[in-house]
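Form 7-S
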Amino acid sequence: METQEQKYKRLRMLDIDDLILLQHLLNGGRPSTGAALLGLTPPAVSHRLRKIEDVFEIKLFERKGSRLNLNPDGKALSEKADRALLLMSN
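Output:
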């Protein structure tokens, strides 16, 4: 079982742009527009998405060609990211 310290070490790998990217995709945004929003290249967006999946040890999306659809795990994580962003903005 993972200790609290190990959990925090994993979470420290994320940053605010990762949460913003998740919210953009949840709201129907495409990875390419997410890249422009964050000033990243599309490959950098793909790298961030893989990083998020690795940190949480889940798959977030169903990939169909270039289209990404959040799966149930992705939606659940995105809702938590939405709450975190809301708390940070107040």
